[in-house]
Structures are given as C-alpha cells and as structure tokens.
Write a structure and sequence with these properties.
With 212 residues, the chain is an alpha/beta fold. The chain has a single domain (5-168), classed as HUPs (Rossmann fold, 3-Layer(aba) Sandwich), CATH 3.40.50. Helices cover 43% and strands 16% of the residues. It is built from eleven helices and six strands. The chain has helices at residues 18-30, 55-66, 77-81, 87-97, 109-112, 121-127, 140-149, 154-160, 173-181, 187-190, 192-201, and strands at residues 5-11, 35-40, 72-74, 102-108, 129-134, 161-165. It has a six-stranded parallel β-sheet with strand order 3-2-1-4-5-6, sandwiched between helices. The radius of gyration is 17 Å and the shape is globular. The protein starts with a strand and ends in an 11-residue tail after the last helix.
C-alpha cells in the first residue's frame, strides 16, 4: 500500500489513554496526514517503565485504543525489533518501506526539548520533520533553540517544525495506573476496550507505591 503522508506518535503507552488519541487525531487533521501510527517502544532507552506489563500487552492495548478510529493505527515495529527502541532506527525502517512518504514525528514540547540527548538526533530530523504538541506554558523558542543546537539554522528549524495548539487533556498513564490500583473505574480515561483488557488480564493491580 502506498502511503503519501504518515505521522508517528511514539511512547511507552503504559497504558494508552484518550489523551494520546486526542494528540494523534489533532495531528492527523492539522497536518493533513493520511495516517498516524501509535508506536509503542519495546524498551525505552532514556527511562524505566514503571509497572510495565510488557511490550506485547502495551501493543495490544494500542491496537484496541485505535480500533475503528479512521486514520489511526497501532504499529508493532519497535516491539517486534526488541531491545532498546531508538526512534532514528524506526524512521529508517519506515522510510525504507515508504520512501516517498512525508514523515512527521509527533512529540510533546517537553520531549522535543530533550532531542539533543537522543541517538543520532540530526539524522532523525533528516528522516522526518517534527510536529510538537504544545502544552500550556510551553515556549516555542525553547524547541527552536534545541533544533538550532543540533545544527539546524533558525530559519530551517522553523520550516521543519509544526506546532500543534490544542486544549489540554487531563489524563496521564500514571493516573490510569493509580486508579486501577485503587480499584476505581478508568473507562472515561482509556475507553471501554482498553479498560476491559486491563481488567481481563489483571494489569496494574500492584500497590500504588510500586507504580510511582
């Protein structure tokens, strides 16, 4: 299948929630993307994943989260590859499969400011342009400064990054895990299918202290 434009939203998705879907849908609409992929990592290279049920469970929850949502899909590329998940390797693989596709790598503003510590960040920005979901209080200048420090002149940095302005969604994966540990309902945070999967497999039932 030929794909002309593709967005990649990576993360641990531990678990995926409606905030992730909101970012993906907003990016697809705002950037006129044919499809946006939720790409769960196998092993995050920069941080530990608290109370991790395993990459296969996280991938399956992503599949359930996007089920029936037009233009969104879950991708198991990093899970199937195994080991530490480096975004530049993922973009190389996607580019090899879809050499003519316009790739957009979607991140939050906080994540964008850490790009300098990522594996081969300059190459990453050659393979895909950046779409940054802005939170209240986030500064565009901080992101542009990060790109400039990677060797991209300010003019090019502004051309290669799109800022996504959207209303904040008050949900996080840690919030979901803590609610599960307290035996509280989570359907309104993750959707019925993901909530049912978490309940069916007994995920995130450890004491709250173990989830922090």
């Amino acid at each position: 299948m030929t794909v002309q434009s593709l967005g990649i939203l990576g993360g641990t998705f531990n678990p995926p929630h409606l905030g992730h879907l909101a970012v993906a849908l907003h990016a697809r609409h705002d950037l006129a993307l044919e499809r946006v992929l939720l790409m769960p990592v196998h092993t995050p290279p920069h941080k530990t994943t608290g109370a991790d049920p395993g990459p296969e469970h996280r991938l399956r929850m992503c599949e359930l989260a996007v089920g029936g949502v037009e233009g969104l899909a879950a991708c198991g590329l990093e899970v199937e590859r195994g080991g530490a998940s480096y975004t530049v390797d993922t973009l190389r693989a996607i580019h090899a499969k879809h050499p003519d596709a316009r790739l957009k790598f979607i991140v939050g503003a906080d994540t964008a400011r850490t790009l300098g510590s990522w594996h081969e960040p300059a190459r990453l920005l050659e393979l895909a342009s950046l779409a940054v979901a802005m939170r209240r209080g986030s500064a565009r200048e901080d992101v542009l400064d990060t790109l400039a420090a990677l060797g991209a002149p300010g003019r090019r940095a502004q051309a290669d990054v799109r800022f996504l302005e959207m209303d904040p969604v008050d949900v996080s994966s840690s919030m979901v895990r803590e609610r599960v540990a307290r035996a509280e309902p989570i359907d309104e945070l993750v959707g019925a299918d993901v909530a049912g999967y978490i309940a069916e497999h007994g995920l995130y039932r450890a004491p709250i202290e173990a989830l922090r």
